Amino acid sequence: MFRIFCLSIISILALVSCTHFLFQESKGEKINLLRESIYKEHQLLKEEFVKLDTEGSLELCVPENFQMIRFLIFQISSMKDEENENLVINLINKSLRRIKDAKLQLYNKNCVDRDGDGLMDIDEKRKFFTNPKKSDTDGDGLSDKDEIIKYRTNPIKRDTDEDFLNDGHEVILNLNPINRDSDLDGYSDGLEVKSGSDPLNQCSQPLKGKRFKAPWAKCNGSVTKHKILK
Ligand SMILES: [Ca+2]
Ligand SMILES: [Ca+2]
Ligand SMILES: [Ca+2]
Ligand SMILES: [Ca+2]
User: Fold this and answer.
1) Which residues of 35-66 are buried (b: 16+ CB within 10 A; e: fewer)?
2) Which ligand is nearest to the CA of 205?
3) Angle formed at CA 124 by CA 118 and CA 125, multiple of 5 degrees
4) Can you name the residues that pair with 224 across neighbouring β-strands?
5) pTM
6) What is the pLDDT of residues 143-160, one digit of tens each?
7) Quick one: which ligand is closest to 200's CA?
8) b (16+ CB within 10 A) / e for 105-133
């Protein structure tokens, strides 16, 4: 009887220890699998980020998001061997959400416009070569957007038509900033303003100064000459 009792006890102990061993092993495997999947996710995250940022578009479109993603990836890299899988998973998920959001903004052309001139930083840098931190890059009084869309002037050149009147001044005077001789009388707008003649009237002309080659617009009446002011 005692022998049977002893054998039962030994069997139970063996079973408990075996179960404990199996449980430990499966827990270890699970952790290893989890680590492996985290590592893979992290690799994919880094690859996607590098691919998106190859041309620097992401940073130009969503700079704050970009900085955060870069920070999160750095954090994840420095943590992946530690015993805090849950935190790493959270960070990876956070990064993936940020990347998804950044991609969507880039795709929808919903990028930042730091100077508020209506042109996105990414276009100012890549297409127009204007300053994304200055709404009026050339300082002629016209915003970059107005120069590009409305007046068709050069946003990085104060005097687009080179008539010695800057673009903003011409707009104020109702002159054509992309035609150096708005009234087509042969005298440049700059010369007319300097001499006191009317740059919008063919019958009002400077007394002296260079005249462009004909043909000129005709004056219906008599011409008044104006002396160049010093
Ligand atoms: Ca802008
Ligand atoms: Ca301007
Ligand atoms: Ca001009
Ligand atoms: Ca003229």
Assistant:
1) eeebeebbeebeebbeebbeeebbbbbbeebb
2) 4
3) 155
4) 204
5) 0.75
6) 999 999 999 999 999 999
7) 4
8) bbeeeebbbebebebbbbbbbeebebbbe
